[in-house]
Amino acid sequence: MSVKHMFLNADPVVQVVILILLLASLTTWLVIFEKILVLRRADRDFMLFKQAAARQEDGLINITDFSELAEPVVLAGIKESSDASGQETRSEFRERVERSMRTEFAGLIDRLGKRTLLLATVASVSPFMGLFGTVWGIMNSFIGIAASGETTIAVVAPGIAEALFATAMGLAAAIPAVVAYNKIIGALRKITKEALIAISLIGNYLARIHFCVDRRE
């Protein structure tokens, strides 16, 4: 009894369950491959962002030192620092500048985490869908026993086979989604940690430059 034969001879309800789980599994893998590429680049860019922020020792930030992903964050801080009132303390100035950079970064991290909730949904729902197919297949086995009055393997096996097939499909969809979701959340946390360190360094640098200029004037 092949997988194809089990699917073609399964109850229509079980067939629908299996097709939904197959679609969920394919979607999960597409998201996984996309996130591998996107987060690998983001991790590298924000590690370089932190390194570049630590190197800013001249009188002016060189925006070309920052990666494409980090550049809008730095520009948000520079723009905010140019709109300063003379009544601010250094800590107030720095907090305002860093807040603008954190806001810009929050939008970026939201884009990086896009479709992550889809993985969480697949991970939580797929086992239950597989269980539904399992229960339906076993129910068909009992119906077959009742209709034939026999309990032979030939009567029981088709329903049990399609039930186990649905269970396997549920697990095949859920397990990669769970692993990928945890990995993505871990990667986003690492990126966030690197970015917040860099934002703090840039905020301190901009505050130092701003108040040095004020004192010279």
Report on the architecture of this protein:
- The protein contains 6 helices and no strands.
- By secondary structure, it is mainly alpha-helical.
- It has helices at residues 3-8, 12-54, 71-82, 90-112, 116-148, 153-216.
Topology of this structure?
Layout: H1 3-8, H2 12-54, H3 71-82, H4 90-112, H5 116-148, H6 153-216
Helix pairs in contact: 2-5, 2-6, 3-4, 3-6, 4-6, 5-6
What is the percentage of strand-forming residues? under 5%
Query: Which value, in Å, is the CA radius of gyration?
Result: 28 Å
| Helix-and-strand structural type | mainly alpha
Major pleated sheet = none
End-to-end Cα distance, whole Å, is 87 Å
**Domain module tally:** 1
Instruction: Tell me, briefly, the overall form.
Output: rod-shaped
Mean pLDDT figure: 83
Oligomer: single chain
* H-E order: HHHHHH
Give the low-confidence spans. Answer: none
* SS field, number of helical segments: 6
Which bin fits the share of residues in helices?
over 70%
* DSSP summary, beta strand count: 0
